[in-house]
Prior knowledge:
It is built from ten helices and twelve strands. The chain is an alpha/beta fold. Strand 1 (51-54) and strand 2 form a beta hairpin.
Amino acid sequence: xxxxxxxxxxxxxxxxxxxxxxxxxxxxxxxxxxxxxxxxxxxxxxxxxxxxxxxxxxxxxxxxxxxxxxxxxxxxxxxxxxxxxxxxxxxxxxxxxxxxxxxxxxxxxxxxxxxxxxxxxxxxxxxxxxxxxxxxxxxxxxxxxxxxxxxxxxxxxxxxxxxxxxxxxxxxxxxxxxxxxxxxxxxxxxxxxxxxxxxxxxxxxxxxxxxxxxxxxxxxxxxxxxxxxxxxxxxxxxxxxxxxxxxxxxxxxxxxxxxxxxxxxxxxxxxxxxxxxxxxxxxxxxxxxxxxxxxxx
Length: 297
């Protein structure tokens, strides 16, 4: 068996990303005929068609979909190895970092984070993307640089983490609400109509578990996918909601937070990244900036 041609890895990565031979050729600055020859060699090497005709376009085979998840990180690691090590110059650094975080994190910490980055490295751009789930595929594939998360089983075992801050649950109502000025009871929390926050559109969580232990159940009349929407409902109604205290501090302007009358597990929010970025100088700097803006003081 002949040795594999590692030069084909980048070609494979671009082909699987573009899913179009012509676009891949332009991106690699190859002629159409050279790109076709490269695809033929890839098909021979992998023993798979990789791209097959579907109507007027091309689609990836199951083997190609499997390879796409593997080849991207391989190419990025190879580029890192072959890139000359240079002293980090923040004044001239030109880079876009993608951060995956909840809406509450951006509203609460985004402005301070942006101001710090703009001051230290004006050529750096921050791209915030939402967290529809807890899957860590984006970190592994390199489409996400940093993520904030409550660590759980969905997080890949190789992912590096650093504790960012701890948080606690509080009940929130509008100013002038009938529950203000009184000490809440578990019965108050259970009986009062409220809005629940769930990305999956279901009820359940630390507050529900604490009430269940007391043989009580929340009176949920509305469900939102994020804290911003939940607090907007609370602001204009007599509903109550339970949210993390520090995570939503800026979002609660004009609202009133009340301590819960029962214990709930403390939330530990962490900063997460893939180990291939562990020693990247710019990434190390950004992690320090995030810790400085959002970490425990």
